[in-house]
Amino acid sequence: MFTQGWLLLAWFLLAVGVATRHAFAFLLGLVVLGSAAASYLWDRYCLARVEYRRTFTPRRAFYGETVTFTMEVTNRKPLPLAWLEVVDELPQQLVPLHGRVIPSLRQRRHHLVNLFSIRWYQRVRRHTTLRCDARGYFPLGPARLRSGDIFGFTVRGADAEQVDHLLVYPKVVPLTTLGLPALYPLGDVRHRHLLEDPAR
């Protein structure tokens, strides 16, 4: 990040360039000053008016099936972002079949990472296929957004607290494949009640 020392250096180079009519010192001062201004601008406004949304289809699945996870980011301002990182937290039972995945500090969780650039007033969508490796009701999220200036001097982060849920049903299998023993191997037993002879 540009500190006060860098700004003093920029003004010093500009002053030296003007006083000595040294073009290189003057241009170098302009470059440092312009870089500091751009870094401040991106650091302050990079994540302003950036919207994040996640969807997945279908909303319910069976064990072993796959769902399509869609991450959508919209930049609603005239300032482009040279880089934007979105880290979405997922349960380990939902396994991404492609993309970058890193472990999480939370138990039985991992992170799906997307890194891309986004222009002004642009919407970006990324699709990932998730395999359901266990049954249950699983939370997806929250997400962490990180961005900064084009030079990499400053980094700013924000949390997208939205949490969605995916319901995974148990695997359905035919009863014949379970190998369960028959309760009545000789067939159903019917109990017949004999009527008593009233004359006896």
TrEMBL record:
| Record-linked PANTHER family | DUF58 DOMAIN-CONTAINING PROTEIN, SLR1927 PROTEIN-RELATED
**The protein's name:** DUF58 domain-containing protein
Origin organism of this chain?
Answer: Candidatus Segetimicrobium genomatis
